[in-house]
Design goal:
113 residues; two-stranded antiparallel ribbon
Length: 113
């Protein structure tokens, strides 16, 4: 398995987690924090859920950006910086295509005089 494939799998996982974390948040500031007691600071051991979701969103977004940049580096290492064979003329292939056969036009039948 290539390094790029590993990075691609990690990018997909992080992107999925980022979508889940963003969907859990409430745009009005409620989200999970309001589900665990509204304005209370601690219910069931959960404190400041919105801060956790905010930090996890930024962490996952940063991780996604880093993984994308690293995957780009692995693509560039795999291709190398080789010159084009076409531009150097090394890949010229001679083809021996026979010339088209021209059939003579029908000659009119000579009329007897």
């Amino acid at each position: 398995m290539s390094t790029f494939t590993i990075f691609l799998a990690l990018i997909i996982i992080v992107a999925f987690l980022l979508v889940v974390v963003i969907m859990v948040q409430n745009p009005k500031g409620g989200g999970l924090s309001s589900a665990f007691g509204g304005g209370a600071n601690q219910i069931g051991g959960v404190q400041k859920t919105s801060d956790f979701l905010d930090k996890s969103t930024w962490t996952l977004a940063t991780l996604l950006l880093v993984l994308i940049l690293l995957s780009n580096v692995t693509i560039m290492e795999g291709t190398g910086m080789a010159d084009s064979k076409i531009m150097n003329g090394e890949n010229e292939v001679e083809t021996n295509i026979p010339a088209p056969v021209n059939t003579p036009a029908e000659t009119p039948v000579e009329q007897e005089q």
